[in-house]
Amino acid sequence: KAGVTQTPRYLIKTRGQQVTLSCSPISGHRSVSWYQQTPGQGLQFLFEYFSETQRNKGNFPGRFSGRQFSNSRSEMNVSTLELGDSALYLCASSPWTGVLAGDKEQFFGPGTRLTVL
Amino acid sequence: KQEVTQIPAALSVPEGENLVLNCSFTDSAIYNLQWFRQDPGKGLTSLLLIQSSQREQTSGRLNASLDKSSGRSTLYIAASQPGDSATYLCAVHTGTASKLTFGTGTRLQVTL
To answer: Could you give the percent of chain B with pLDDT greater than 90?
Structure first.
């Protein structure tokens, strides 16, 4: 079974631009989460989608948004990029079915390294 | 608010040594705890998942324990190898859905 894939792997943008990152979960997984990793803040939760619905959102400004498609693929968008948005963006998928508490293992993709100049 | 701490932040050991990495969390109402490994510039590789009802899990040379009431988990690595060099992260799952709260990580170096 193929793992979680993320595209592109590397991006360089300038301040003020916007960017879209893509994540394809493991086949059969409907839960997709996004995390931002920086040296100063570590791994921080951005948001989570299940069956095309945002289930949870972290403490990030509205410039960060996401969506999930009917095939469970997810995209996240960052508008009006700032230097501080430079980070490794990680996507995770889980076989969580949306029922009861989440108790499923999560699997991460290789990440997208975003550099904002 | 759940907070996860990992001690030590960095560790260097000679090859062959057994070692223990620590993870503590402030809210004991967790559903599970997951240990990950991260190589520089790479994504996270899941090592072990411990459900809240379990006390430990083993995979090869790795053994993870969980003491939910005291808010602690340990990752034991037996007979360490240079290939074990990486950053090890623990993460707890406390809410519904799939949100994980991560610790700050322990950077491990195993020397020849």
So the answer is: 84
Q: Which residues contact B69 (CB under 8 A, 6 or more apart)?
A: B28
Which letter does DSSP use for residue B84 in this model? G
Give contacts of B 15-44 with A, CB under 8 A. Answer: 31-32, 34, 36, 41-44
pLDDT digits (tens, 9 = 90+) for B33-86: 999 999 998 999 999 999 988 999 999 999 999 999 999 999 999 999 999 999
SS3 of A29, please?
coil
Phi and psi for B82 in degrees, rounded to 5?
-55, -30
Give Cα separations from A36 to A42, A59, A60, A82 (angstroms).
8, 11, 10, 14
Residue B87 contacts A, CB cutoff 8 Å: no
